[in-house]
């Protein structure tokens, strides 16, 4: 979307996005969210949260779902507690991520991270940090392994790495939660 | 009071010292007993909602159901676990329809009335009471910046203000330390995105440390394993971002409690901190009586005239 192009309201067509547009219809563009957002201030968002709200109201579904913003939101909830219209902006970002995944938008590293994280929880019942780091880097940027070495050495020296995962007794039960939710979704 | 203790994944790995010190502190306090939930599962942290909107509530519900069977309130030391479980407890308590849906995904435990979820900071300050902490070795000379981060007070923490909380500051004062007043106590460290966008989270964390330093702090206290990981393990990288040296030990608040209660230091896991706290402790808490000067009141310097060197 270039800055000079006239923007005409469109209608969000995907059923995944329509409820999100309704949720942000109360936004009156005060910009408090953007002012509160630490990631925006650090330059990590291509559109500010306020802009995302407006774009949703205008029905610019494609632009929103392919934006960097929905993946770099740190879910710190600063915008949520300050919003005078009580919009759950951080949760809207999560819903937008879900919609982007479902509608097949270009997977950013956030997808690899989120899915890898949940695969581990599904398999082990608990998080096992070393596997997440190895798996994530293998899938996104294998060259980065060299850069990880100093951190790994430091963590080893402080005995902060677990070599073996921890398995709770209720592991099959936990996997059952994932399976039942998947069955329900189909 | 007895609480159902939910350690969480980090507390058994990268933040093991948080777990260890908190348990040591609770053993000494008569009014805070932690009964560990043996068969707990991961709360799903931030990614769970991306897989299925009900998944975070379902994962939390299983843990809540076990706590309910134990008949106790739940204590979750990790800020992300605390936020997820607390949110699920509120949402499922108010929405019987969703509770039914969630219960249908659980095989085994079933959740009835979700128990209340507490952060240990809340328990220590509001249940135990800061005046009832047996301080044997006041933390003289420590100037502590209390860092709450995002999820202890947001979005529905409910025990303190989301913008300017003071619970941890009151605790630090009761322990004999000086609570530094600073502006970044609830700013985000970027913990949720540090694997995917490392540079952004380093910028955020470096800002936090720079502000703590500028406010005159010589130590930071935290109540979240991700804040601690970023500020401590990656402190050399944060220094590179800001082109400065911080040399700032990052303690879990429970470690500072243990120090002030003069517990066996082996139980507090101080050796696990990457930025060593020993020199600071030698110069402050462990220094002989009278070696630390009382803070002087600074006189404002005379304004310089134009052209004066």
How many runs of DSSP E, i.e. beta strands of chain A?
Answer: 0
Order of helices and strands of chain B: EHEHHEHHEHEHEHEHHEHH
For the record, the CATH class of the largest domain in chain A is: Mainly Alpha
| Uncertain segments of chain B | none
CATH topology of the largest domain in chain B: Rossmann fold
User: Helices and strands of chain B: which structural class?
Assistant: alpha/beta
How would you sum up the major sheet of chain B? Answer: 4 strands, parallel
Question: Can you put this structure into words, describing what you see?
Answer:
Chain A is mainly α. Chain A folds into two domains: 18-102, Fumarate Reductase Iron-sulfur Protein, Chain B, domain 2; 109-185, no CATH class. Chain A contains twelve helices and no strands. In chain A, helix 9 (109-124) runs antiparallel to helix 10 (129-140) and helix 9 crosses helix 12 (171-185). The longest helix of chain A has 16 residues, at 109-124. The mean pLDDT of chain A is 87. Chain B is of the alpha/beta class and 309 residues long. In chain B, 40% of the residues lie in helices and 9% in strands. Chain B has helices at residues 16-28, 48-51, 55-70, 79-94, 96-105, 120-129, 167-174, 198-214, 225-233, 235-242, 253-260, 278-283, and strands at 2-5, 33-36, 73-75, 117-118, 143-147, 178-179, 219-222, 250-252. In chain B, helix 1 (16-28) packs across helix 11 and helix 8 (198-214) packs across helix 10 (235-242). The longest helix of chain B is centred in the middle third of the chain and has 17 residues, at 198-214. The model of chain B has no long low-confidence stretch (mean pLDDT 91).
